[in-house]
Amino acid sequence: MPETESPTTPGQNRGFGVDVGGSGVKGGIVDLDTGKLIGDRYKLLTPQPSTPEAVAETVAEVVRHFDWTGPLGVTYPGVVVNGVVQTAANVDKGWIGTSASEVIGAALGGQHVVVLNDADAAGIAEQRHGAGRNRDGVIVLLTFGTGIGSAVIHGGQLLPNTEFGHLEVGGKEAEHRAASSVKERKDWSYERWSEEVTKVLVTIENAIWPDLFIAGGGISRKADKWIPLLKNRTPVVAAELQNEAGIVGAAMAAQADVTR
Ligand code: BGC
């Protein structure tokens, strides 16, 4: 078979991911061999209120924009077990108990959909294609945004639905202490905010002793301003895939269901 027809030709092993966030729903076609987007991503605003039906329709619009009919992965900002949503810290509470995979699948005429936690998606993408590639041991990815999301990966395997953002740290939930939304709301400097982030990292590292933290979320774009200020013991590196990590991880999850 000529090289160009090989199934491993870059760009042939494609998937599709959609990342559902509090403000935007974005998706794109992913080259699963390289973890890069093929072409542009497409973004729509998250409907408000962010009910399951409204969000499912928006996800479907993003998918139809690309005429995609293959394997589909979608992220959700809360705990998802077997496609069913269990928590809704920063989205409409109507999600709790909803089968996200069924509601989104129905909006797409019965298409099979794998739904997973947003930070878990970012974690598997960063581990395979970003800041965690070629790193052994236990990796903890944290996303700093409206809340704090977490992913734990060991030997390439995801431990799904860790919720370190809701750990109690000094009498307060970690994400109420150190999400990047807290920095904005309180108009804190990076110095002040990094003290809170340090407390959260120390609580996590004392519990599970990871080998590496990967810091993700929008604020990781300014990583040089705050990662050097952290005082915990485990090395912290910035995420590399930035706002594409969720899309890439969702596409990976649809190819090989990592949520179980
Ligand atoms: C949710 C997590 C989610 C994170 C980031 C938290 O409030 O509980 O499941 O990963 O926010 O969206």
Automatic annotation (TrEMBL):
Pfam families named in the record: ROK
Region of interest (Disordered), residue spans: 1-20
Keywords, in A-Z order: Kinase, Transferase
InterPro entries in the record: ATPase_NBD, ROK
Ranges of compositional bias, category Polar residues: 1-12
Key word Lyase present: no
GO terms of molecular function: kinase activity
Entry's family note: Belongs to the ROK (NagC/XylR) family.
Protein name listed in UniProt: Polyphosphate glucokinase
Source organism of this protein record: Mycolicibacterium rhodesiae (Mycobacterium rhodesiae)
Phylogenetic placement of the source organism: Bacteria, Bacillati, Actinomycetota, Actinomycetes, Mycobacteriales
